[in-house]
Automatic annotation (TrEMBL):
Domain Beta-lactamase-related: start-end pairs: 18-382
Residue spans crossing the bilayer: none
Domain of life: Bacteria
Organism: Amycolatopsis thermoflava
InterPro entries in the record: Beta-lactam-related, Beta-lactam/transpept-like, Beta-lactamase/esterase
Listed name of the protein: CubicO group peptidase (Beta-lactamase class C family)
Pfam assignment, any one: Beta-lactamase
Amino acid sequence: MIGGSCAEGFSRVREEFERNFADRGEVGASVCVMIDGEPVVDLWGGVADRETGRPWEQDTASVIFSCTKGATALCAHVLASRGQLDLAAPVARYWPEFGQSGKEDITVGMLLTHQSGLPVISTPLPDCAFFDWDRMIAALEVEKPAWEPGSRHGYHALTFGWLVGELVRRVSGRSLGEFFQQEVAEPLGLDFWIGCPEEVEPRLAPMIFPEPREGDEPSLFMTMAATKPESIPGQIFANSGGYMLPGPTGFDSREAHAAEIGAAGGISNARGLAGMYAPLACGGGLAGVELVDRRALTRMTTTMSAGHDETLLIGSRFSAGFFRSIDNRHRPYGLRDSVILSQDAFGHPGFGGSIGFASPADRMSFGYTMNNMGPGTLLNERGQSLVDAVYRSLGYTDDSAEVWC
């Protein structure tokens, strides 16, 4: 049932991975841990497709939802490291049509830190709108900020991909998916796409939408999404052209896989996520592939927006494009409103519980993907148990000041 390899010192990770299948409802999944860019854990197992019984193999991949944002943010940092993109500059310097409707002073950095006030598109979107890049860009150009830009932050769950991705396109002259493939995925040898080729489709694991479990208390974000369509959470789901719902225009359609949806549509597996973060855990480059400079790494590891999140409705912390460790275990929904990492770590979780991140102090990168989506806003017991097992394998303890911050 479980394939792959696990170094002796990381046996805890394999034990938790097996327990996820035995006790926590895992269906199909992969987990990968790299130290200095070399895998010490590379495991996969379970069933990729419940309808056919097709097993999860070494090269199985799936939709990674918001883990895609880490890839999109990395593209912006690559350009910034080359001196082509200034995070302090107004977005309109690179994208003139953006500078209207109260957005004239929004900076590139505000987009990356979820402070621009553009968490949703208020104009009703037709079915399949997410598959039309130009339509989405035009909608964002006329959108008015929901709050004064820079005054607060709120997770840009879906708009982030077009906002940052259009900057990548304007500056580089290539689409977001092309830039990521040519500058990151191909040089690092990753199975990771923003805009998935058709020939990869047979390898993909269909996602299993999360179902409420008896006794579970829904998160405030999911409650608002289900009961108040005019709220920010409600608009994220209801005004997505069908993308955020299972069905023919949803996230698991061929059209969705092929589209460049930079906030939520990436296709990869644990090895792809860990491989993308490996250079960032090792100073910005690895094996002759230099992605970013030290200034970019400082921006990735420095919290730039924190406190109450206008979208997630919990406490959150962001560096320039990445989640930092968030401990909301004191809240009613607890672990599922949290992403508990070491103090230096940065990365991104995905809807349903996937995650990729780098811990530079340990030169460690991590990836976890699955098809059976868990409830909650951020991580859940399956992903967090694997993260915890990695840190314990590295010598951290539960009461360490350096972890579970």
